[in-house]
Amino acid sequence: MNVAHLAPLAVVLPFLGAALAFVLIKHPRAQRRVSLGTLTITLALEAWVLASVWTTGPVAVKLGGWEPPFGIVMVVDQFSSLLLVISSAVSLAVLAYATGQGAADGEEGGPVSIFHPTYLILVAGVSNAFLAGDLFNLYVGFEILLTASYVLMTLGGTGSRIRAGITYVVVSVVSSLLFLIAIAMVYGATGTVTLADLALKLGELDPGTQNVLHILLLVAFGIKAAVFPLSFWLPDSYPTAPAPVTAVFAGLLTKVGVYAIIRTETLLFPSERFNSLLLVVALLTMIVGILGAVAQTDIKRMLSFTLVSHIGYMIFGVGLASVLGLAATIFYVIHHITIQTSLFMVAGLVERRGGNSSIARLGGLAKLSPILAVLYFIPAMNLSGIPPFSGFLGKLGLLQAGVADGSAMAYVLVVGAVVASLLTLLVMARVWNRVFWRSTFDAENPDPVLLATAPDASGVPSMRALRTSKHVDATEGRFSGENEIPILPNMMLYSTAGLVVLGLAMTVFAGPLFDLSQDAAAGMLDRTPYIEAVLGAGAGTP
To answer: Is the N or C terminus of the chain more exposed, i.e. has fewer CB atoms within 10 Å?
Structure first.
């Protein structure tokens, strides 16, 4: 049996782990071990599947022995297997981060006890979406991860989280309803929802019907991917969630929407009918998103806007519809999942160490926590596209693809991408200068704990501000002793550092990774290997 036939275990194992974690809901330590162990095993399995798929090509797993298009089929190819591995690696790092935070804060009961089973269900939903071989199973994957995300976003039940959760739920329900309507219309027009079968049958419809179906799917996936102007919900929703939840949301959830757009554009609607529209959307997403980031004074909101902006880079490559453009998009998706997640994890550490995430109220963190400064600086420069990091290489691939396209719109996108990258560097540098580089005492109304532990002229932290501050009660529990600086839990630091190192590894191994991305792009644009893997050899060239 081909190893790739084990790919459905990427969905099954997290579900089983979630069930066991829920049974152990009154035993937090055992719950944490089960969750971490489940994701570790899942990651190892997916790496094995990835190695197999790169040599054998796409593999279809027919659940229950039912032949498509009548049965449920899961398909693993180069693109989906690569996303499975990177998503599980990031999920494992964030789970370790959350585990360190929970252990340090002593959150052993209450609503936090459902975090682990819900988190594993989220991972299962993401994996199911990447493996789905039909539109309805893709819809199921979206609903699994969205249902879990509703719970994770509102953990703690604070007013801001409930309000943000309501917005998130309403937007998600609207996008899911549009997706469900599109599925019904696709089935009514073709009699199937299997992606490989649709690749053959959609081309037989009249252009007007194709356009309606195409636009419905793009709008539904565009909301989930947070492209402009469908991204209004994201900056208000993500920053209010707990730090680990925000990190995994930023890294994975929008990328599932991007994955669905890529799969739709390459497999179902390979014509260039809407490429110009995609390029316009990509440009607006890049520019509007980064201008929103420039206007922010809160680190998490600023990162949320940069997240929106960099989705535009991915849509840029999709709109070019070339092997080079799609390969650069695949490379950039992998890069962005890692880098954006690590930056949100760093933001959580900054908030924990400095007492808040406001750029105006923070300062001096480079002296107070040099390791935190390093953990911010590396991914920040990577996201900004500074050579020789993977962010620069991914953007360079997109710029080369735009120049190779040669159209006027492609050149406009090239200029827009450079402008967005420079503004990203401006935003990241502003955070560095104000939060890490300037003196603590130059900050506006700094947190009492930050003032309390700021070094005096001799370089020794003074506790006088803490003892005399009227806000001393707010700092309770953040010191392990009267004369000790607040300590960042080792597990939170190690998991963040591990993800930063993974981002650096993408720079070191950028050549082989880009070659793999090109192979995946060529396979998706060809379509025949995917179709024949599902429907059998000789199914016909679309």
So the answer is: N
Query: Per the structure block, which two tokens stand in for 484?
Result: 């000790």
Q: Report whether 376 contacts 436 (CB < 8 A).
A: yes
Compute the mean pLDDT over every residue in the chain, rounded to the nearest whole number. Answer: 86
Contact between residue 8 and residue 63 where contact means Cβ atoms under 8 Å apart: yes
- Residue linked to tokens 């798929």: 53
Average pLDDT in the 255-265 region? 93
Say if residues 200 and 540 touch (Cβ distance below 8 Å).
yes
DSSP string, 393-460: HHHHHHHHHHHHH--HHHHHHHHHHHHHHHHHHHHHHHHIIIIIIS-GGGSSS--HHHHHTSB-TTS-
d(Cα 3, Cα 52) in Å, to the nearest integer? 6
3-state per-residue secondary structure call for 141-160? HHHHHHHHHHHHHCCCCCHH
Please, which residues have CB within 8 angstroms of residue 178's CB and are 6 or more apart in sequence?
216, 219, 220, 223
Residue pair 256/126 in contact (Cβ under 8 Å)? The answer is: yes
Q: How far apart are CA 145 and CA 137, in angstroms?
A: 12
Question: pTM higher than 0.85, yes or no?
Answer: yes
Question: Which stretches within 226-274 are classed as H helix?
Answer: 234-237, 243-248, 254-263
CA distance 52 to 486: 47
Closest CA to 347 of 315, 383, 388, 312: 383
Give the H or E element holding residue 61: strand 59-62
Mean pLDDT of 57-81: 86
Please report, rounded to a whole number, the percentage of residues in the chain having pLDDT higher than 90.
55
- What does DSSP say about strands 73-76 and 59-62: parallel, antiparallel, or unpaired? antiparallel
pLDDT, residue 447, reads 67
List Cα–Cα distances, 440 to 302, 356, 444, in angstroms. Answer: 21, 13, 9
Instruction: Supply 165's token pair.
Output: 């959760």
The predicted structure's pLDDT at residue 498? 94
Residue 481: both structure tokens together? 């002793």
Q: Return the bridge partners of 134, or none.
A: 194
What torsion do the CA atoms of 112, 117, 121, 124 make, to the nearest 10 degrees? 130
